[in-house]
Design brief:
2 domains; six-stranded mixed beta sheet; globular; ATP-binding cassette domain-containing protein
């Protein structure tokens, strides 16, 4: 069984003090609270978060820029430690923050795909078949054998999006949404996304799109200045969020 259990967790980032630090504590429309310490500024990204997720949960995160969405996703991915409180994760986690990270321009599309297979934990005996699937999906033809540094932006995007085929996880974490280069790639990527999301035991997705959240999430967590402001059904929470945004 996949599970994430967060209890009273807080996460901060620390920045060395420079210049007139008094102005850095001014309140604004976005961002977490900034606290002046003896030597550092403390950015209180998450404060006293309690959240439990289990198999079958499909959760969307909403909130203004700097509200703590990405930090919460990184915490659930095991990429950040808590300063206080606790988090327990059961199951294989796949964070999809930047699918194209690690692509080496000097290597071919084939070689990059092979390396991505190894990184994703694809068994050695299955790598060749996965590589051929990615080649067919991206539609690059002979360019798949050439260095990525010779690709156009659209061609590189085709390769990167097709690497979704390699992702397998119990817990799928997505920050915003993965775009595509053109309509033909978008159809392929959308099918891969559907397959990937349906196969995951738990989905955690941050997005500003009500349509995407309504399609894939069954409840929303609304974050504001690092704290959970509301949890509930997608339509009800998003309606309240829109009303609150309109009043600001």
């Amino acid at each position: 069984m996949a599970q994430i259990d967060i209890k009273d967790a807080s996460v901060s980032y620390f920045v060395r003090k420079r210049g007139d630090v008094a102005k850095s504590t001014e309140g604004g429309a976005v961002g977490a609270q900034i606290v002046i310490g003896r030597r550092y500024l403390e950015i209180a990204a998450l404060r006293n978060i309690t959240l439990s997720l289990t198999t079958g949960d499909r959760v969307g995160l909403i909130g203004m820029n700097g509200s703590g969405k990405s930090t919460l996703l990184k915490l659930c991915a095991g990429a950040l430690a808590v300063q206080s409180g606790s988090i327990a994760i059961e199951g294989k986690v796949s964070p999809q923050f930047a699918l194209g990270s690690g692509i080496r321009p000097a290597l071919s599309g084939r070689r990059n795909t092979e390396l991505k297979c190894l990184y994703m934990g694809v068994p050695q005996r299955a790598i060749s078949s996965y590589v051929e699937e990615v080649k067919a999906l991206c539609g690059l033809g002979g360019y798949f054998e050439l260095p990525v540094q010779n690709y156009s932006a659209g061609m590189r995007s085709r390769l990167v999006m097709s690497l979704l085929r390699l992702v397998r996880a119990d817990i799928l974490i997505m920050d915003e949404w993965i775009g595509a280069a053109d309509a033909s790639v978008n159809r392929t990527v959308s099918a891969l996304q559907r397959e990937l999301i349906k196969s995951a035991s738990i989905l955690i997705l941050a997005s500003h799109s009500q349509r995407i959240l309504a399609d894939w999430a069954d409840r929303l967590v609304w974050l504001e200045q690092g704290k959970i402001r509301q949890i509930g059904p997608v339509d009800a929470v998003y309606e309240e969020y829109n009303r609150w945004m309109g009043s600001r």
